[in-house]
Amino acid sequence: MIEPHPFDDPRAVRLIDELQAEYLIRYGTPDETPIEPGEFDPPAGLFLIGLFDGDPVAAGGWRRVGPGVGEIKRMYVAERARGRGFSRLMLAELESTLAAEGYGRVELLTGLAQPEAIALYESSGYAPSASYGMYAGEPSARFYGKPLTVEVRRG
Fold first, then answer.
1. Structural domain harbouring 51
2. Residue 1 and residue 108: Cα distance in Å, rounded?
3. What is the C-alpha separation between 143 and 126, in angstroms, rounded?
4. Is residue 68 a part of any domain in this protein?
5. How many domains does the structure of the chain reveal?
6. How does pLDDT run across 87-129, given as a tens digit for each residue?
7. What stretches in the chain show pLDDT beneath 50?
């Protein structure tokens, strides 16, 4: 089950702390991209937690970065839950909620020390895109983007 939660929800904070610890192992430093928790508040953002038998095992969010463009941040699956398809489910839910809010494009950043993330994004239709932000020009950084099909709301 994937549910929206505030970015500063204790379960989200725990998963983000686990992610930052993993960045420290893989890159030698946590991700230092500036983030304000309010950036993930609807309608200009959203943060999701994936639960398995009540245990928070996955997280991911998106925030508006430009007209019609959202950026996925802090996508993570806990080590104890890997290999069960949670990353693909989370990515699909993030894309779906972006499209439902009228976003036509999604961008994200990953790095060479995360080959499983690169494989996920490339197999999900993401293509290399222009670099941006504080990691632009970083040799190990990889920037990806994907057009989204905007969902037509009927009401």
1. 2-106
2. 23
3. 9
4. yes
5. 1
6. 999 999 999 999 999 999 999 999 999 999 999 999 999 999 9
7. 155
